Amino acid sequence: MKHIKGVIFDLDGTLVTCTLCFKTMRQAINCPPDEDILAYVDSLSSNSKTEANRIINQMELDEADSAIAITGAIDFIARLNQLDIPVAILTRNNARAAKIKCFNNNLHIDTVITRDDAPAKPNPQGIFKIANNWQLPLDSLLYIGDYLHDIQIAENAGIESALYCDSTKPKPSFANQATYVFDQYQEFAKNF
User: Fold this and answer.
1) Closest by CA position to 11, among listed 179, 189, 164
2) Do 41 and 92 meet the contact criterion of CB atoms below 8 Å apart?
3) Long-range pairs for 99-103 at CB < 8 Å and ≥24 separation?
4) Distances in whole angstroms, Cα of residue 192 to Cα of each of 99, 131, 175
5) Is 169:13 a contact under the CB 8 Å cutoff?
């Protein structure tokens, strides 16, 4: 992966653990089980949208303090820093929750883009913003995440994707859609 000059990470489930129950979140805002939560909220009327956003933001904040760094993630970021490869976070979290998670886990990453800063994944605008800021071509970027939205945003932006799969869970059915798949940061870091 010597062609990779910049790495963008998802946050929840990729750099830190996430105990947020999306089923409970869906029920709290009456979101159908097969619909994207944020897309559903965007479709609501003004008052309903405000209330749904309040509920989601509060649930994210309530969960933020429980997030802990995933084994090897901080060392991998340090490795990228040693190689002068810029790193960023692009997450569907709200800004306050993302800031708490980064602070509590010593994730010293200057560029953190949340849904408060750019349209939520899988919309690629956040990636374009980062690429422009870094002045790097898209084909030199890698997006690392743990969910289908992460593969989709990379595909929508025209960049490579890496799927982190927690080794204690079954590999997701969409794993074959990622450019790379790994379950240990220590091993994946050897590619850089």
Assistant:
1) 164
2) no
3) 100/61, 100/64, 100/65, 100/67, 101/11, 101/12, 101/16, 101/64, 101/67, 102/11
4) 27, 19, 21
5) no
Q: Is 138 helix (H, G, I), strand (E, B) or coil?
A: helix
pLDDT of 1 over the 90 cut: no
**β pairing state of 180-182 and 87-90:** unpaired
Give me the mean pLDDT over the 35-51 stretch: 95
Give the whole-angstrom CA distance, residue 106 versus residue 176. Answer: 32
Q: Which tokens hold the place of 111?
A: 């560029």
Is the pTM value of this prediction over 0.85? Answer: yes
Closest CA to 9 of 187, 161, 131: 161
Residues contacting 145, CB < 8 A, separation 6+? 9, 10, 13, 14, 151, 153, 154, 161, 162, 163, 164
Q: pLDDT tens digits for 114-145?
A: 999 999 999 999 999 999 999 999 999 999 99
Instruction: For the chain, give the mean pLDDT.
Output: 96
Q: 42, 22, 45, 44: which is closest to 34 by C-alpha?
A: 22
Q: Residue 92 CA to chain centroid, in angstroms?
A: 7
Q: Is the pLDDT of residue 167 over 90?
A: no
